[in-house]
Structure formats: C-alpha cells, structure tokens
Amino acid sequence: MDFTPEIKDKLNQLQEKYTAMGQDMASYLDGLLYADFLTYWDYIHLDTLLSLQSPKTPFPDEEIFIMYHQITELYFKLALHECRQIAEHKNLTVEFFTARVKRINAYFNALTTSFEVMVDGMEKEQFLKFRMSLLPASGFQSGQYRMIEICATDFIRLVDKSKREELSTATTDEQFENIYWKFGATELASGKQTLTLKQFIKKYSAQFLQLAKDRRLTNFSALYHQLQSDGNNVSALAEELRKLDLYVNVEWPLSHYKSAVRYLEKDPVDVAATGGTNWQKYLPPRFQKRIFYPFLWSDEQMEEWGKGWVLSVLKTLKNKD
User: Helix 252-264 and helix 94-114: axis angle, to 10°?
Assistant: First the structure.
C-alpha cells in the first residue's frame, strides 16, 4: 500500500514530535494499533454519570430534584470554564470577551427557561416530605454559583448593599465578612448563622477569598473598563454584560423565588427553607438589588430593579391557584 503525501507528511510530523520528546514513535503506533475504538458512553462516562443519583427517601420526585440540581452544577461549570478563558487570556480582545460572555448567557438562558421543572415538575406533597431528609443541605450552598459572581464583577458589588459605601476602600477580607449571601442565611429567630452557612463557609471561604484576590484586576467589570479606556468599541460587549446582569441577578434568583412560593408559601406562616434561609427577603431581586454593572444602567432602571418581574410572578402563581 502506497502512502499519500498527506499521510507521509503527518508521519514526519509525528516523528519530529516524538523525537523532540525523546520518545520512540513506533511504540506509540503500537499503542494505537492495539487500542480499541472509542465509544460515546465511555468518552462521557455515561454509566458513571447515570449512577450519581442517590435519593434519601422512596419518593420518586426526589430523583427529579437531584438530577436537576446536578444539571445546574454542570451548567455552572461551563460558565466558569468561560470565565477562566476570559480572565486568563494573554491578549484579550473585545471580540473574544463578547463571544465568551454570550456563551455564558446561553447557559443561563437554558437554566432559567428550564426551571419550570422545579416549579411545576414535582408533586408538592412529595417535595414537602422528602425535603426534610435533606436538612441542613440547601441549594444556597452552590460554591460554583458564588465563583461566577466573583468572576463577573468588582468584589464590592457583592457586599451587602447596606455596607457597600462604608466598605468601599476596605480589604477583600473585610468585604467578605459582609458579603450579601451571609445575610440571607441567618436564623430568623436569633439572627445567628445557620448550620447551612457555617458548613458553606468552612468548605469554600478560602477558595472564594483567593479567587476574589486573583480576579481583582481580571473580573469582567475591570476588564470591560480596561478595554474601554484603550479606545475599543465596547457596545456589543456592554449589551452582553447587561444580559448577564439580568440573568444572574434577576432571572435566576426569581426562578428560585417562583419555586419557593410554589412549595413553601403557606398561610398563615410560610414553610421554612431546608437551610433555614430567609428566602422571602433573600431571593426577590427587588430587595437585594445586586447589580454587577451599575455603569451600564440608568438610575431609573436601577431604582426599578426586579420589581416588575417579582410582581408579575406573584400574580401568575396566584392565578394558578
């Protein structure tokens, strides 16, 4: 059999590659000869993936709850993959930055549009029973979500709104002590930190602090201002960042709020979240007013942040009932 010029060229390139590494190309070709063909299920570890659901109760809908949260974490991992590419790019351009933020927006669009699985995809009676076996675990404890926030904006924007002005020149460590989500995981009666929050801080605080320090000059807000100051046209990037702001700080929390209202709202007293979080005050965007990019919004838009969305959701849910 005669080799085509293309095959000969590739063999020569392989020979150069392995010679430069002090390796014997023939040995590697033996490995290729004896290796089996790759299959789809082996490549994505399908059997392992499908075995990762371990319900704590016999209620069928608990498996839906587990799988959807696993899907969520995979989307978060995709988003963080893009965050790293942006932050670590040696010669970042507006075009690259915009394209990667657009990918992150696509991931959050998939998440927010699929959250009806959580809102209407489980029987309320089953949920209220199996949720008690999950104590004190909570979706609040998603470390990847917090990492996306840290990558997306200046760290001061994640400080509780009542402390932002006071801590605007404080150290990252001081600001972290007043990060907004700590105020959403306090016991309603005593005001003390919940076990959920204590577990979360113990596992992730060192990682969060290091990431915040690593991203001080390479978070999305800082990079946007740098590219803008260099004279680049950032209009398309600004549009994608506005979308990201809405997805992360309005649409995603609101999706959870819809689910909480569906399953936990009850007269005369609402059902508590498994982690003991104050979901009534913590989830609605209009209360938190987390805004990554205030320089991209008007004063009126920020003043009305999340209000219309929350009101429309409450109206829709009441009409369903």
Answer: 10
